[in-house]
Amino acid sequence: MASTLLTSKHVAYIQSLDTKRDRLDYHLTSHLRLSGVYWGLTSLHLLNHPTALPRSETIDFVKSCYHPSSGGLGASPGHDPHLLYTLSGIQILATIDALDEIDGDKVVEYVSKLQNPDGSFSGDEWGEVDSRFVYCALSTLSLLGRLGDAPGVSAEGAVGFVLRCLNADGGFGMAPAAESHAGQIFTCVGALKIAGVFEKSLSEDQVNLLGDWLCERQLPNGGLNGRPEKLEDVCYSWWVLSSMAMIGKLQWIDREKLVEFILSCQDEENGGIADRKGDVADVFHTVFGVAGLSLLGYEGLKEVDPVYCMPKDVTDRIVWNHRKILTT
Ligand SMILES: [Zn+2]
Q1: Which of 54, 89, 246, 312 is most buried when burial is the number of CB atoms within 10 A of its CB?
Q2: What does the UniProt cofactor note say (predicted)?
Q3: Cα 24 to middle of ligand 1, angstroms
């Protein structure tokens, strides 16, 4: 079992993904393509190989997923726009310093049209509602520098919806009264952080309760699960760990055991990281494994921003240094 991060294998694995267009799994994942590029690109930046994907082709691909009429982005060329892929596209362009390649005003317009009267956001025009989409909306606006300047968007309404998703066990769910889940905790805490209202929204007792719920996700094998009674999974190294970082409780995790667990899920032959040991690696678990290791201070990795899941030097440059603090 590998006891170190196999950086050059992971870089080669990510570079190889786009060359497999003739394989069935390439087409089966076309509904994830733009997010896949974001996962791969972010992995490469954190692995300190920021130029391993060609910049101009990356920009061209993002633009091919953009719908100039609505301002949203779809997963692949020809796919309908969705808030998830709109965020992925903006994250990609922000990371490679190319935000001026698409019309930010139109993207803001797309996002604003998806907000509902109760403050929540729908993922697309078909209307599915999930607290994840509040995060996607606020993160997109924030990366565009438009958080306090988005006509038709009520950040106060969005914050109100997120706070209604808070449960008595300390966690957050996808909607009010829905079961707590680590993925939704990441998005809800992240949304409150982006809006600049986390500290005044939760009491110290509530933060401690949330920290307890999160650190109980670590299993005896070192891995983390997403909710009680579930199996460990590398992606929760990100959802759980980033939430703990955001609330200042990262030290509550057994670092050594989690590092060992993530490293054990690497594909030692072909690169990439799987959800758990012995499974097939994919780019989704690769980025969240690498980002988790970055949060744990693993040597040789670039620092990741726990709020945005992007390289910290990028978000420092475009968000934190210029953000408009909301006055809610
Ligand atoms: Zn997973």
Answers
A1: 89
A2: Binds 1 zinc ion per subunit.
A3: 21
- Ordered domains of the chain (ranges, CATH): 7-320 (1.50.10.20)
**Spacing, Cα 268 to ligand 1 middle (Å):** 19
- State how far the Cα of 161 lies from the Cα of 222, in Å rounded to an integer: 34
Tell me which residue of 189, 104, 139, 103 sits closest to 323, measured CA to CA: 139
The two three-digit tokens of residue 57, written as one number: 């082709």
Q: Are strands 304-305 and 310-311 parallel, antiparallel or unpaired?
A: antiparallel
Among 96-100, 123-127, 275-279, 323-327, name the one with the lowest average pLDDT: 323-327
Cα 224 to ligand 1 centroid, rounded to whole Å: 10
Tell me the CA–centroid distance for residue 230 and ligand 1, in Å: 11
Distance 231 CA to ligand 1 centre (A): 10
* Cβ 153 vs Cβ 198: under 8 Å: no
pLDDT in the model for residue 326: 46
Q: Give the residue-averaged pLDDT of 52-75.
A: 95
Rounded to the nearest angstrom, the distance between the alpha carbon of 150 and the centre of ligand 1 is: 33
Find the length of the chain: 328
